[in-house]
Structures are given as C-alpha cells and as structure tokens.
Amino acid sequence: MKTRSPRSLVTGLMWLQQREGGGSLRHTCEQSDGLSRYGWLMHDGENFGVQEIRDGDLLLKTEFVKRPGGEHGGDWSWRVTARMEGSGGPAPLLSLFFYIATDGQGTLQPQLENGTRLAAVTGTAEELGHFTLTFLRPTAENGEDPKYASYNFLDAASPGLHRLTEVVRSSLSNRFIFAPPGRPRRRFFAVDAFRGLPGAAGEPPRGRLLLHQVTLEPPATVEVTFESGSASGRPGRLSGRALSSALSRHAAEFERRFEETFGLGRKGFPPPQRRFAQAALSDMLGGVGYFHGRSLVRSPLQERPVPGPEAALFTAVPSRSFFPRGFLWDEGFHQLLLARWAPALSREAIAHWLDLMNAEGWIPREQILGEEARAKVPPEFLLQLSEMANPPTLLLALQRLLPDAPPPYLRRLFPRLRAWYDWYNRTQAGPLPFTFRWRGRDPQPERFLNPKTLASGLDDYPRASHPSPEERHLDLRCWMALASRVLAEVAERLGEPAGPYREMERALSDNGLLDRLHWAPELGAFADYGNHSAAVALRWRRVTPAAPGRPPPDPQLVREVREAPRPQFVGALGYVSLFPLLLQLLRPDSPRLPAMLAAMRSERQLWTPFGLRSLARDSPLYMQRNTEHDPPYWRGSVWVNINYLALRALHGYASVEGPQRERAAELYHELRHNLVANLYRQHAESGFLWEHYSDGTGRGQGCHPFAGWSALVVLVMAEDY
Ligand code: 6A9
C-alpha cells in the first residue's frame, strides 16, 4: 500500500514456504511464479478489499479496511489468513514478511520487544504525519488462541521499491531453528544481516527498510494495524473482533452496492456468476495505482530520446502481472466500468491522463513512469514516439460521466480536450478531406508479413502491405467521428461554441461519404485503403551472403512480395471493417447493415461460440505469424473490448426503428450469451481473466490475470452500455 504521492512510503507483504534449499520468495505479481490463482474477490477502490492467493497448497487471504479520521487519511488494518489445503503430509513452515520502507522522505524507528521481535514501527512522513505501525502476534485461525511463531527482523538501506525483493532474498540465511515446545525442531530461512546488493555499492540509499518476519505452521491469522497520529479519539484498535466486524460490515455494503449498481441478482444470475463479476470489477480496482516519473520520448525531428517532464498518473492497469502500468486506450475501457462504480474516482483518473498532454496536445500511449514501472519493460519498448496516437477512448468514458459531471470539472477539462482533438486532426490527417491515417507504422515493411500499426491498438491487424501517405484508416476515421460528437456534447454543456464539432461529426457520420471512402465492393465490407498487395508471404532466405571462408549465415524469415502493390482497398475483413457499426455511425436503415450483420454471424467469418473473432477465418492473414518470433495477436483471437463495443452497438440497433431491428436483437442475445458463458467458464477453470481468448477453443490466451478491458464482461452482464 502507498499513498497517492511521488515519494510515498510503502508497506507490503512477501511470503516464503520454507523448503529444502529455500523455496521461492513471493512478492510482486509475476506470471513466472505460476500461482494457480490470485486476485481481489471484493474491492471497493477506496476503503476495503479481500484478496485470495493460491500458491501450491497454501491459501492466503489478505484483507484490508481503512478507517478515515484525523488530518492524514486515518487508520488502516490488514488481516492475513494462511491455511493449507489438500494433500496431507507435513506442511512446510510459512514465513510472512511484513515491511515498511521510505523512498526519499520520512523517518522510521523500530520498536523492539525483547531485542528480537519488531513489535511496531513509529514514524513520520510528509503526507501521513506521525504514525504507528503495529505487528500483532499471530493467532490460530479462530482469531483468539495464541500461535507459536519465530520472529526475525531486518533493518536495511533501501535501494528503491523495485529492488526490495532482492534485498530480502539476499539477506536470507538458514541458520535459524524453529523450536515449538514439545515438537520437533526445524531449520528455516530468515532475514539475517544485509550485506548490500551487487551493483548498488556507492549508490546513496533511497530510504530505509524495516521488515518483520513471522514464521509459523499454518493455519494462522496475522494482523497489522496502521494508526495515524492525528486521528485522536478512536473507539479502539482496529484489530481482532473490531476488525472482524468492520470487515463484515464492508463486505455486506459491497454486496449491496454491487447489486444496486449492476443488478445481476435482479437479472437472475446465480451466486457463482455474481461472484465472478465481483472479482472482475475488484481486480480492476485492486490494480489501480499511482505512478510517478518521466517517460522516455522521441519526436521524429530528434535523433536522441529525451526524458519527458515529471508526471503523475492515477490509473487502472491492463494486467497486474504483465502490464502493470497505464495504457491510453485501455484506460478508456477501464473507465467505462469504473465510471459506474465510482464516478469521482473515474473523473480523477481521466483528469490525470489529460494532464499528461504535452504542449502539442499529444498524450504518450504507454506510460512507463518511475523505476518500478521501468523495471518491467525491456529497453526496446521504452521509447514513446511523439507522432504516435492511440484511440481516444477516454472520450467514451467521459461521455458516460457527462450527465453528472460537475461543470467546474468540465471547464478545466475542456481546453485539454480541445488541444487533444486538434492534435489528432493536425497530425493524423489522411490524404483526402475527412480521411485519417495512423502515423508510426513500422518503417521496414520487409521484416514483417504485414507491418504493424501499434498506434491503432490493434497492433498486427492487417493493413495496407506497403505503408504510405496514401493510406486511409477506417477505424481512426470512426474514432474521430466519436471524438467530434463528445467534444460537441461537452461544449454544449458548458455553453461554448459547439458548431464546428457538430459539423465535423456530421461530415464523419455521413453514410454516403463513408461509402465512397471506405466501402470495398470486392470485399463486401468497409475497409482501409492504401498501397497494398495481397500476394505477400514469409519465406526463409539467406539475406546476407557468406563471407569468404565462413559458413553461410543462418536463413531468415523475410517477406516476399509476388505482386507489386497498387492503391486499392485492403482485403481484410474483421474488427476494422466493423467500426462504422461498432461506433454506431451507420444509420439503422443503412443498406450496408445487413451485410455487416451477416459477416458477424457467419462462422466462416467472425462468429465463434466464444465471441466475435478479430479477423475472418477466410481472410488471407487469418492466424498468420508476422515474423518468426511474432505469433498472431489481432488476427483471429476474441478480444473483449471490441466485443463490448459490438454488443453496445447491437443493443443500440435493436432498440431503434429500422429494418434490421430484429436481426440485431437476435445477434445481441446470442453474442452476449456466448461471451459471458465463455469468460465465466474460463475463469472457473483457470482462475483468471485473460488478455484475449482463442477463437477455436475459447481458452484464455496472452497474459493473465488481465482484469483490464476483459472486466467489461461485468457491464455486458449488467447490459449497461
Ligand atoms: C511489451 C513486454 C514483461 C497490446 O493492453 C496493453 C496493450 C494494448 O493497448 C494493445 O492494444 N497490449 C495490445 O495490442 C499490451 C502491450 C504490451 C507492450 C509492451 C513489453 C513486457 O514484458
């Protein structure tokens, strides 16, 4: 836990199941730890949460409650419950490591009991004032009887949050003996003297780390309380029975609020499905973080990257394990959900994002702020290019917040929204009026079957084979229609001139113009246009000749173009083709609507029992690798964010007059059923939400847990569009 401030104190938990040779120390979410499941089952985003973690046979439950009071945010308490499941046999000893560390400011004083047990830490920090952190003695699971435990503690210099695991791991030694009275003695690993980290010699410490290690035989319960010095007159310590009753009060309130917000009980979802939806929302809320630092930025005019200005970001993240940082277009989807649960929190996140804008009006797509975030990213992915856009989905979320947004908030947002909108119009303009083009496609097309378009968010989705200024991108054009509409709505709310936005919206939603620019008769669908050849393939080739007297170099996979590219529509049917429908720009009586619905419902094309696949099964690049090392990503898999947009649109077409009204309603019901049933089943089987889902088997793919946009399943269950 941290405060929302740049040089926050941090408190946390690590654990270790003691085995011959050590076992592995757990700390941050890492896919490579292979935990069979973990995630927040309940989390209100503010004051309360319940998390379950399964690590082999160990079941850990971590709960927290905050109690507001005083001048510094009040008190909080943790309860950690450990239990072994299954398999019999002697359970390994379990060590829980509770720590607190400073990071550039604040002071800590250890309070020792008998010179060995770290019973408490007192301290001060800018945001927290004076405080006391108390490590209570463990109890048996019932919370009453004392439990035998060994105690160790560590007092070390901290090289920064991103290296705390290493500090602890490197100070473990197994010279310690666990000796419960009348029971066999066992050796175990515990924190001993800290001898410094490799590579850190000479670096000034960032702060101080104090750590309390409790070693015991599960089952057991351990509590930790944080008491704020300025919160006087508290009714009593928030531990034991008082903590139990606070936890159950919060849990009941969470249930009530969840039902009031999403109505899944009213809709007839049985308890296991409701718990699944609660876990999806909670894991998104549990992933929300406060980040601080500088991006690494390069503009096309600069040779060398430069650090951006210091920035702060309060944001949800796509994945706690794999992408624990902010992503621009992901965040719009996150906030669609969070706007319903906690509108004020959602407004704050959106405001933070808009404050990341530079003087040009650009917002970097991926936010890698601070050392902890940077430690998770390979260097080749660090750079943010300043011509690179990403879909303006924050506007979708803002549209949802609009009816209840306080005017002063909107007034402060508006200049930023205008600058952002102008930036897209200025920098992502297409070759003809009212067309748009994503910048920053990969400049070396011969390395890929189809050069990527990371800016679009649909990475390897097939586009024109030969990137050129002639390209017009359908999805971006549709996003700009939406952007124009939302800017007009905000302007109207504020009594600012909305005319130019409305005009742009009208032009970009003109179905006749859309047809002329993007309808591909040969495909029977809407499409991108550009310099394109359909006759491309990857082939193994020796690209460089052998040097004299050396063995020939390894063959490489390179692109072969068998037919020269020419300006034409791009023959790919998939998510991009659906955009005029997804963003409801097609009129309900559009003569194109039947063909689009047919493509969606066709199993040879986009329909699967698990949701809509990203690229038609009969499309040339369906499930094709892009390079030797780059498997298909948006070339077939089912993605939840786009399925959410499809359901929202079908729901819209099903609720207005039009010749396709009934067809849209049918598709809506079937698609909703398929998507929800599969995500629920995969979650029950694997324990996680996933980044995307196989169109062949429905299995989760990519990284996990992915409680980013996959958690939109909650809104789908609630039919809240
Ligand atoms: C890779 C390697 C630990 C890709 O969800 C975030 C984004 C989406 O915005 C985008 O639409 N994901 C989608 O196509 C993940 C992108 C991760 C890029 C960084 C670094 C990490 O190794």
TrEMBL record:
Keywords: Endoplasmic reticulum, Glycoprotein, Glycosidase, Hydrolase, Membrane, Signal-anchor, Transmembrane, Transmembrane helix. The keyword Transmembrane helix applies. Residues 1-142 form the Glycosyl hydrolase family 63 N-terminal domain. It catalyses: N(4)-(alpha-D-Glc-(1->2)-alpha-D-Glc-(1->3)-alpha-D-Glc-(1->3)-alpha-D-Man-(1->2)-alpha-D-Man-(1->2)-alpha-D-Man-(1->3)-[alpha-D-Man-(1->2)-alpha-D-Man-(1->3)-[alpha-D-Man-(1->2)-alpha-D-Man-(1->6)]-alpha-D-Man-(1->6)]-beta-D-Man-(1->4)-beta-D-GlcNAc-(1->4)-beta-D-GlcNAc)-L-asparaginyl-[protein] + H2O = N(4)-(alpha-D-Glc-(1->3)-alpha-D-Glc-(1->3)-alpha-D-Man-(1->2)-alpha-D-Man-(1->2)-alpha-D-Man-(1->3)-[alpha-D-Man-(1->2)-alpha-D-Man-(1->3)-[alpha-D-Man-(1->2)-alpha-D-Man-(1->6)]-alpha-D-Man-(1->6)]-beta-D-Man-(1->4)-beta-D-GlcNAc-(1->4)-beta-D-GlcNAc)-L-asparaginyl-[protein] + beta-D-glucose. Residues 239-719 form the Glycosyl hydrolase family 63 C-terminal domain. Its main location: endoplasmic reticulum. GO terms for cellular component: endoplasmic reticulum membrane. It is an enzyme of class 3 (hydrolase). It is a single-pass type II membrane protein. It comes from the Eukaryota. It is found in: Endoplasmic reticulum membrane. Its EC number is 3.2.1.106. One of its GO terms (molecular function) is Glc3Man9GlcNAc2 oligosaccharide glucosidase activity. GO terms for biological process: oligosaccharide metabolic process; protein N-linked glycosylation. Cleaves the distal alpha 1,2-linked glucose residue from the Glc(3)Man(9)GlcNAc(2) oligosaccharide precursor. Belongs to the glycosyl hydrolase 63 family. This is Mannosyl-oligosaccharide glucosidase. The lineage of its organism: Eukaryota, Metazoa, Chordata, Craniata, Vertebrata.
